[in-house]
């Protein structure tokens, strides 16, 4: 009898263990490019132009505001604040976006603070996308959109930006990557719930033109589709280009959620303060997800970001404004990296915005050993080989494409140029030495 009892115990244990532990919504989304490439960069890189974060300090006015919030005597800043956003932050964000959008905003219902733009994206899909809904994603895309749509039970539908190389032999610009209007229109149907727009776009740096945004807006209105507008790089536009907010186009305010990030805006990605701006009819559902998951994000960081925005509101459009200075500095850094890459034949696609730059590596095939029987795309093999053999880290572009389309875009890698001058010089040294080795 003793033996029998123990047998049945072990049976029931086994039965429990053979049950799948993983929820179905995680199927197919367990692979993640960042885990592998962040580790490779940490292990091998001498110069890391991979992941998107600045290696220069956040501005003094911001870090000083954080110190004041931390130890300036208001001990309540160490406690919970309002769930949907620390009042000083939602108030100043509302004031700021009133200016940008030219409409009145209620800080309590038209603005919400999130843990980075990442969480804002997650909320949009959780709150607005149902089982069976389709969500249009423009390729190449910030890679988390796809798993987030899937986790919400939705189906991503991809439409690529198509490169049209200039005929005069000039370097390509991110503006040369364009949507085919007929192809885009063909993706909209009665199943389409939302489109994700990311302008300026990570990874290409494309800043969508008024015409392109107008086309997207027209289709959204025609098919009653929502727009999840990821604008985290809104201040990072170059060469006098203008960032246009799709929410300001006719018929779009009521169907658009604007997403922003203090991490990108104030060069403090580790703070993880993000926000959404939009109509109450959409934001009230995001608040439901927020209330039932995170409640709110760190009060001190929100207080400091509020002070940062207060400063920027006072200096709006003036030369001392960080939102004026940062893109100026980054444009110079972009130009240095463009020169370095062009000089070695790694043809850069000049970005109109963001702090990313995509370069063409098709001239470097003979440098990277072939791996027989491997179906790993060339850009992945190249990026791994480059970090291991040259100490320079970058990200393969095909990581920003759907499974079905990634094999069409394996000749490019993405660099981040939000780096100190010394870092970009070190990258240039690596590239120059590599070129000399190739020619000698
Ligand atoms: N959207 C895009 C397009 C991004 O590139 C990033 C960061 N790489 C995010 C959202 C996430 O921003 P945050 O760090 O504020 O969560």
Automatic annotation (TrEMBL):
Pathway(s) served: Amino-acid degradation; L-kynurenine degradation; kynurenate from L-kynurenine: step 1/2
Catalytic activity: L-kynurenine + 2-oxoglutarate = kynurenate + L-glutamate + H2O; an S-substituted L-cysteine + H2O = a thiol + pyruvate + NH4(+); 3-phenylpyruvate + L-glutamine = 2-oxoglutaramate + L-phenylalanine
Subcellular location: Cytoplasm, Cytosol
InterPro entries to which the protein is assigned, alphabetical: Aminotransferase_I/II_large, Kynurenine-oxoglutarate_AT, PyrdxlP-dep_Trfase, PyrdxlP-dep_Trfase_major, PyrdxlP-dep_Trfase_small
Coiled coil: none
A biological process from GO: kynurenine metabolic process
Domain of life where this protein originates: Eukaryota
Quaternary state and interactors: Homodimer.
Family: Belongs to the class-I pyridoxal-phosphate-dependent aminotransferase family.
Entry protein name: Kynurenine--oxoglutarate transaminase 1
Organism the protein comes from: Illadopsis cleaveri
Organism classification: Eukaryota, Metazoa, Chordata, Craniata, Vertebrata
Gene: Kyat1
């Amino acid at each position: 009898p003793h033996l029998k009892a123990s047998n049945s115990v072990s049976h029931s244990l086994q039965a429990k263990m053979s049950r799948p532990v993983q929820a179905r919504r995680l199927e197919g989304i367990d692979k993640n490019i960042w885990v592998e490439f962040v580790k490779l960069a940490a292990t091998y890189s001498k110069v890391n132009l991979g992941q998107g974060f600045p290696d220069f300090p956040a501005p003094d006015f911001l870090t000083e505001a954080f110190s004041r919030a931390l130890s300036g005597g208001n001990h309540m800043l160490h406690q919970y604040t309002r769930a949907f956003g620390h009042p000083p932050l939602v108030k100043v964000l509302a004031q700021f976006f009133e200016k940008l959008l030219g409409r009145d905003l209620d800080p309590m219902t038209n603005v919400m603070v999130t843990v980075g733009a990442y969480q804002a994206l997650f909320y949009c899909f959780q709150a607005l996308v149902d089982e069976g809904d389709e969500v249009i994603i423009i390729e190449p895309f910030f890679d988390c959109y796809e798993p987030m749509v899937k986790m919400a039970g939705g189906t991503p539908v991809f439409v690529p930006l198509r490169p049209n190389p200039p005929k005069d032999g000039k370097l390509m610009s991110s503006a040369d990557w364009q949507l085919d209007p007929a192809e885009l229109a063909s993706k909209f149907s009665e199943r389409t719930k939302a489109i994700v727009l990311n302008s300026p776009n990570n990874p290409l740096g494309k800043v969508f033109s008024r015409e392109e945004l107008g086309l997207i807006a027209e289709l959204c209105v025609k098919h009653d589709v929502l727009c999840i507008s990821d604008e985290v790089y809104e201040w990072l536009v170059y060469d006098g280009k203008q960032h246009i907010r799709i929410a300001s186009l006719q018929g779009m305010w009521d169907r658009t959620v604007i997403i922003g990030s203090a991490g990108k805006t104030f060069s403090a990605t580790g703070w993880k303060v993000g926000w959404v701006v939009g109509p109450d009819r959409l934001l009230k559902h995001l608040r439901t997800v927020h209330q039932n998951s995170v409640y709110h994000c760190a009060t001190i960081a929100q207080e400091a970001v509020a002070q940062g925005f207060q400063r920027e509101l006072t200096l709006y459009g003036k030369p001392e404004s960080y939102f004026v200075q940062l893109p100026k500095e980054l444009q110079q850094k972009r130009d240095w990296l463009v020169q370095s890459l062009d000089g070695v034949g790694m043809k850069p696609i000049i970005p109109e915005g963001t702090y990313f730059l995509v370069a063409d590596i098709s001239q470097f095939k003979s440098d990277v050993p072939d791996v027989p029987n491997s179906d790993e795309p060339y850009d992945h093999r190249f990026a791994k080989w480059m970090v291991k053999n040259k100490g320079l880290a970058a990200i393969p572009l095909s990581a920003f494409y759907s499974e079905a389309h990634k094999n069409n875009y394996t000749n490019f890698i993405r660099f981040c140029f939000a780096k100190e001058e010394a870092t970009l010089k070190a990258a240039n040294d690596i590239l120059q030495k590599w070129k000399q080795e190739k020619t000698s």
